[in-house]
Amino acid sequence: MRTSTLLLALLGAGLCRLGAGQLYDAIYSDNGIGWRGSYGNQDNCADSSNGAAYAYALQFKYETLDKLDKTGGNSVKLYCKDGNGTITNYVTSLEGNYGDWMGIYTCPGGGFINGFRLRVFPDQGTFGDDFAVDNIEVSCSDGTILNGMDGINPQTKHQTTGESVKVEGGVMEAVRARLRSSPERETRLNGEWGTFVYCSPGMKVAGIRTVVEQGHISDDAGLTDVTLYCI
């Protein structure tokens, strides 16, 4: 009885225990349409001898909206490193079949991801063309906002510089945010931004789960919702 009561309390608080006793705190978007599509598996940053790894970089998969059946966002990757700053792996969940991966954008100065929000094109009804998640932004521990499409949030006044990093034996181009003297306009505006949701104080994002709708004859919405997990 006590075990059941504790489990219900953890689920009610958005907490779940996976792997080797690690407790994760789930944070959910407030505008996703996860009732459309299939849930992928939760994928977590790999622990190392230097302790639990956490997410510090973002990459967004996007299909341009010039297709007959628009899908927009198709997946999200988060790149992880451990307490010594060593890159351990990347995490992703269910991936849509369409689009291309945008740049890899990283939190500056050794920062980590601690929150996110989605930009979602609302459901268009029976005869409309849906493409759901059109963009994602993540917040870094120093207040920097990384934009999945453009790498910067114009309200945080950043520019970017390139840097090569190795992940699982491959070399990828990462982009670090830097201070910028004036804001830039964000491009490709569709849908509405939700509200930022954050990990509890002192916690870091270390896992992801996505919902994707695909495989329909008529209308696929692509990426429809995202959940992040904090440690």
From TrEMBL:
Cross-referenced SUPFAM superfamilies: Vitelline membrane outer protein-I (VMO-I)
Entry keyword annotation includes Signal: yes
GO CC, any one term: extracellular space
Keyword Signal: yes
InterPro entries named among the record's database cross-references: VOMI (IPR005515), VOMI_sf (IPR036706)
One Pfam family linked to the record: VOMI
Cleavable signal peptide: 1-21
Keywords: Signal
Superkingdom of source: Eukaryota
Entry-linked PANTHER family: VITELLINE MEMBRANE OUTER LAYER 1 HOMOLOG A-RELATED (PTHR18841:SF0), VITELLINE MEMBRANE OUTER LAYER PROTEIN I-RELATED (PTHR18841)
Protein name, entry field: Vitelline membrane outer layer protein 1
